[in-house]
Write a structure and sequence with these properties.
Layout lengths: L1 H36 L14 E3 L1 E2 L9 E10 L2 E5 L4 E6 L1 H5 L2 E2 L4 E5 L2 H36 L5 H33 L2 E3 L4 E6 L6 E2 L4 E6 L4 E8 H4 L12 E8 L2 E12 L9 E8 L6 E2 L17 E7 L6 E5 L8 E7 L4 E8 L1 E6 L2 E5 L8 E3 L11 E4 H14 L1
Parallel strand pairs: 1-24
Antiparallel strand pairs: 2-23, 3-12, 3-17, 4-11, 5-7, 5-10, 6-9, 7-8, 9-11, 12-15, 13-14, 13-17, 14-15, 14-16, 18-22, 19-20, 19-23, 20-24, 21-22
Length: 413
């Protein structure tokens, strides 16, 4: 009996769980069918993308030589330290040395005391004159002795003695002439002559000072010839026509001074024949033309007179490169990956679409890149701003037109 009751209880429990499972499955089916019959139908609708806003600029063909820019410092074409080959006391200085003024080639800039050297020169010249007189007398006696010897009146010994005296005096005369030339050179070494037209940069010794051989007395420089030495990269050097021909490459040099900017015409004077080992650049010397008459680039500034080309002044140099067609100057930030630029093709007053144009960069000048574009699309403007997911033909709106319109309205009001 107990076993029967236990089996009956187990059957009833399992039957209850099966019933509950069937009820849950049936309830879920009814709920799914209810939700399916009462679902909200979502219709497919196109998503309108907002029109991208861009900023554009007008770009015109660049019909000038490509500018190759560099910076350097103004320095004299020549700068020399004056020093004497022999030491002595400074006896006199040229007025230009005293006042740091100008001088001409051949002027005696420094005169050292040469009294002892001149006395030695005078003594040598006196000995030379005496020896010459003795030689002249010996030659006359020798001629007479030769004539007497031919007639048998003079002896051979007398003739030989005169010939020996002539040879000895000739040798002495040549030695004295060499000594005279050396004495003259010694006297010449006591004065320093200007090797070129120029001016005095610095005076280092005063009259009465005793200087040694090779000791600097003053610094001089070419006042009328100044230059700027600049580094030029290989790629930039290839853009400069006539770079390695003296005076063929034209340039301009500008110097700022006290709020004013002065500019000189210039030209390339020389190029070092070797590349810098560290920077791989060429050292190019640019000479200033007509340095006494620069141009004032900012005429609104207070004018205090044209300045000279000051030594060690910071200078900006612009050398004329090649000039070729289909070149455009664009901001460097407008160059996209793959050597492309984006242009705005207007379809309305401020609306248009995107075009991608292939370019070939020719020269990079700081924030400006000069590119070659074969067939720039007419009527288009360069896009300066970035665009998310750009695609050819996508709609754009030019805010530059709106900005200019608002600015015009403000001005009109």
């Amino acid at each position: 009996m107990k076993k029967l009751l236990r089996a009956t209880g187990i059957f009833l429990r399992e039957s209850a769980w099966v019933a509950i499972a069937i009820a849950l499955i049936y309830g879920g089916f009814l709920g799914f069918r209810y939700l399916g019959e009462n679902r909200e139908v979502v219709e497919i609708a196109p998503v309108e993308r907002p029109i991208a806003l861009v900023e554009t600029i007008e770009v015109a063909p660049f019909d000038k030589p490509l500018p190759v820019r560099a910076e350097g410092f103004v320095r004299p074409y020549r700068q020399v330290s004056l020093s004497a080959q022999s030491g002595g006391r400074v006896a006199d200085l040229h007025p230009a040395v005293i006042s740091l003024g100008s001088f001409s080639a051949g002027d005696v800039l420094v005169q050292l005391d040469d009294s002892s050297e001149r006395a030695a020169l005078s003594q040598t010249e006196a000995n030379l004159a005496a020896t010459q007189a003795r030689l002249d007398l010996t030659i006359s006696q020798l001629e007479r002795t030769k004539s007497l010897r031919e007639r048998g009146v003079a002896s051979q010994q007398a003739l030989d003695q005169l010939m020996s005296q002539e040879a000895e005096l000739s040798a002495s005369l040549n030695s004295l002439r060499a000594a005279r030339d050396a004495a003259r050179i010694t006297v010449e070494n006591k004065r320093i002559v200007a090797p070129f037209d120029g001016a005095v940069l610095e005076k280092l010794q005063e009259v009465g000072a005793v200087v040694g051989a090779g000791q600097s007395i003053a610094e001089i420089y070419t006042k009328d010839r100044m230059e700027v030495v600049i580094p030029v990269h290989e790629a930039e050097a290839a853009l400069i026509p006539g770079l390695f021909q003296d005076g063929a490459a034209k340039a301009r040099v500008s110097v700022g001074f006290a709020g004013q900017v002065f500019e000189w015409d210039a030209h390339v004077t020389r190029v070092d024949p070797s590349l810098d080992q560290r920077t791989r650049t060429l050292r190019v010397s640019v000479g200033l033309d007509d340095i006494e008459n620069p141009r004032l680039l900012n005429p609104k500034a207070m004018i205090t007179g044209a300045i000279p080309a000051l030594i060690n002044a910071y200078a900006k140099v612009e050398i004329d490169g090649i000039q070729q067609p289909d070149i455009y100057a664009v901001p460097s930030t407008a160059i996209r990956s793959g050597n492309q630029i984006w242009v705005f093709n207007p379809t309305d007053r401020d609306k248009g679409n995107l075009l991608k144009v292939a370019v070939q960069p020719a020269h990079v000048d700081g924030e400006t890149t000069y590119v070659e574009v074969l067939g720039w699309p007419k009527g288009t403007r360069l896009i300066r701003t970035s665009i998310s997911a750009p695609a050819p033909g996508m709609e754009l709106r030019d805010i530059s037109v709106e900005t200019m319109a608002r600015a015009g309205a403000i001005v009109t009001e």
